[in-house]
Specification:
heterodimer; A: 288 residues; alpha/beta; eight-stranded mixed beta sheet; two-stranded antiparallel ribbon; 10 strands; globular; B: 242 residues; alpha+beta; six-stranded antiparallel beta sheet; five-stranded antiparallel beta sheet; 11 strands; Proteasome_assmbl_chp_1 (chain A); chaperone (chain A)
Chain lengths: 288, 242
């Protein structure tokens, strides 16, 4: 037990466990109501992968149905904006499906009837080369849903002859370094790759003891286990909302092999990006 | 470790950090960019004017405020905190004038604001002010001044500085382009402020607001908008009186 300056008593965490654990367990036997609640919650949190036209669920995993050689995944609004402006604008991309899910971070309250406009993860392939895949994921995928997402997208036995590129951003205060965050040149790019990834990376590698979180970490771990070449480009920024300078920090990766041939008109893409910024600006009066 | 030492402002962490002050500095970065330039005969404050909601009265969204006839301030960070600091500073300016019959010096009012901010980093139960300020003006001796304060309560004099979002990018631009020649001429100093802001300001109807004080002249606040003449020509800048 410890007391703070305000007089409140705070229980200090103890890793040895509490003494009254046995007593608690007796009162915790599951009732049928508990089981029903748990079942309903599991149904609510299910990750559903839907086909584009019919909006029916896919029977097999996405990559089993549409084998690909190149898969680019953008997670978070800045990474999604980067792909929207530079990649999807430079070619003809066709939507093949979407993943819908619900968790506590979602804005919608209706979990059963998610409207068509609420597709959280959209999958596209390039019409001229259907083995090039793109995923734009702008929602938060909770820890318990990440495995489901991976299974529904990659399947239980993925092919090894594909290359995965993941783009995401994170706040610079989570970057552990001996320098002070004020002196870091944010936004800046860091890379983390699996053992089988042989191509050169476009920026310096992420140093220890920094770690990757959430869906990007799940995808990268999955690729490492299944020996799939994959690289994650993580942009550390001090502006977490949609921001022009953060999105432009991803530009060095346009010179990599993955993006060769996918990006055609960079000045036009930059203009598209600026338009995207102004239309997406959220008005907030707290900060001026 | 941080989570045990950031609840109360008066607690140092074992390695000497005051986390609430550092978090307040993050709040400053959420505000839009402001730049200040001290010329030879002019001081300029430039801010990125945030686009307002359709039904909102534009005049109530102000980032540049006059503290007195000869002193002006731009801030970045929490709007409400800025309002409180500005009100206190304005009262202090008048109080000083009534007491000693002289207007405040820029350094005096900066020190007052910085002392006020520091008090809030050392009181039990109060959080620091989440704003940084750029304070410009001319003293009676005719020398132009530019000061910057931050949530910790420190203040320093600068030749040119930027605060708010992407301040680092603007500061790097200023370090490369601030020369004695650039600031010798008033118009060149104004152009330098505009160019510095354009490094980070998003286009598409966004405006830049400038506050200019020339020696022995009152404060002027102008609005600058980018106008494209032709698609292929370089963008021109027109100064309009706001």
């Amino acid at each position: 037990m410890a007391a703070t300056f305000f007089g409140e008593v705070v229980k200090a965490p103890c890793r040895a466990g509490t003494e009254d654990e046995d007593e608690e367990e007796e009162g915790r036997r599951e009732t049928p109501e508990d089981r029903e609640v748990r079942r309903q919650l599991a149904r609510k949190r299910e990750v559903r992968l839907l086909r584009r036209q019919t909006k029916t669920s896919l029977e097999v995993s996405l990559l089993e149905k549409y084998p690909c050689s190149k898969f680019i995944i953008a997670i978070g609004n800045n990474a999604v904006a980067f792909l929207s402006s530079f990649v999807t604008n430079s070619g003809v991309w066709e939507e093949v499906g979407c993943a819908k899910l619900w968790n506590e971070w979602c804005r919608t309250t209706d979990t059963i009837h998610l409207s068509p406009t609420e597709a959280f993860c959209v999958f596209y392939h390039l019409k001229s080369n259907p083995s090039v895949f793109l995923c734009q994921c702008s929602c938060y995928v909770a820890e318990d849903q990440q495995y489901q997402w991976l299974e529904k997208v990659f399947g239980s036995c993925p092919r090894k002859n594909m290359q995965i590129t993941i783009l995401t951003s994170r706040h610079v205060t989570e970057y552990k370094t001996s320098e002070s965050t004020g002196s870091l040149p944010s936004p800046f790019l860091k890379a983390l790759k699996t053992q089988n990834f042989r191509d050169p990376v476009c920026c310096s590698l992420l140093e220890q003891p920094n770690i990757v979180h959430d869906l990007p970490a799940a995808v990268l771990s999955y690729c490492q286990v299944w020996k799939i070449p994959a690289v994650l480009y993580l942009c550390y920024t001090d502006v977490m909302k949609l921001d022009l300078i953060t999105v432009e920090a991803f530009k060095p990766i346009l010179s990599s092999r993955t993006f060769k041939g996918l990006v055609k008109n960079i000045p036009q893409s930059t203009e598209m990006l600026k338009k995207l910024m102004t239309t997406n600006e959220i008005q907030s009066n707290i900060y001026t | 470790m941080a989570s045990r030492y950031d609840r109360a402002i008066t607690v140092f962490s074992p390695d000497g950090h005051l986390f609430q002050v550092e978090y307040a500095q993050e709040a400053v970065k959420k505000g839009s960019t402001a730049v200040g330039i001290r010329g030879t005969n002019i001081v300029v404050l430039g801010v990125e004017k945030k686009s307002v909601a359709k039904l909102q009265d534009e005049r109530t969204v102000r980032k540049i405020c006059a503290l007195d006839d000869h002193v002006c301030m731009a801030f970045a960070g929490l709007t409400a905190d800025a309002r409180v600091v500005i009100n206190r500073a304005r009262v202090e300016c008048q109080s000083h004038k009534l007491t000693v019959e002289d207007p405040v010096t820029v350094e005096y009012i900066t020190r007052f604001i910085a002392t006020l901010k520091q008090k809030y980093t050392q009181s039990n139960g109060r959080r620091p002010f989440g704003i940084s300020a750029l304070i410009v003006g001319f003293d009676d001796d005719g020398i132009p001044r530019l000061y910057q304060t931050d949530p910790s309560g420190t203040y320093h004099a600068w030749k040119a500085n930027a605060i708010g979002r992407s301040a680092k990018t603007v500061r790097e631009f200023l370090e490369k382009n601030y020369t004695e020649d650039a600031i010798a001429d008033d118009d060149e100093a104004i152009k330098l402020a505009i160019r510095a802001l354009l490094e980070v300001v998003q286009s598409g109807g966004k405006n830049i607001e400038l506050a200019i004080i020339r020696r022995n002249q009152p404060l002027k606040v102008n609005c600058v908008s980018k106008k494209k003449k032709k698609k292929n020509e370089k963008k021109n800048f027109k100064m309009r009186l706001g």
